[in-house]
# Entry
Amino acid sequence: MTDRRLRLALFGLVMLTVLYAAACTGTGGDPDEGRGTPKTAAVPPSGFGGLGSASASPSAPAASSPASTGWWKPTVGLTWQWQLTGALDKSVAADVYDVDAVTTSAADVAALKAAGRRVVCYVNAGAHEDFRADAGNFPESVRGKGLEGWPGEKWLDIRRWDTLAPLLEARFKVCKDKGFDAVEPDNVDGYANNSGFPLTADDQLTFNRRVADLAHRLGLAVGLKNDVEQAAALAPAFDFAVNEECAHYDECDSLKVFITAGKPVFHVEYDVDTAKFCPKTTALHFSSMKKKQDLDAWRQPC
# Structure
């Protein structure tokens, strides 16, 4: 082979080598580009969509849905009115009204909301009431001893969720259908009373969390009524607290967990003067007032 042909052959070999290398490395950019490796999708911030990680596994539930996140989230400092008896006075200057599920009409709720109020639905969740239209739907087997001082009411066996769940759901749906924003389930501390059943603290925690979940699944906020001893454990499941006489019984500090979480405490006293309890509960950022025990329209806020 002549020198000219040798040089041509060597030049051709070099060019083939260069072309081969270019084919393997793309255009000289990212060495991973062009190899079939998928690009990583943009990662949303931590906690995006209510999740605690960047992305959900294929079996994870949806990040949000109306049934899980679509309820009212009340804030600390809202003023409130609580009226369960007498003709409803809709003129009270309060941010929130807590009124009875049955005696309050859908028109009343609509009028309050048109005036810029939020409306809470009072429902007896832990006791049977013989004066309610659905009283006969509660079997005798779940009715226990009477509530002291409240004729016609008996504690319920809260362990019987299979029986109580559809009955409470029906009651909560009445609230939802009337346009209420939230529910106040009453008598959720049967374990601490002479209920006629061997209820434990764990039974009560389970029941109360189920009640909260039921309300949330219907798109309703839910408040923890009294049950101060379990407030710390239950605050994460509830959106606010409703308390009677924590100042009288020196229990108000136990409800600070709600305020710390940015959730209001709607509080009343019956026998203590506002001059005695307001300084303390105002410092705790509670929404406090004095009421008559029959809970008519009269109120004396802090």
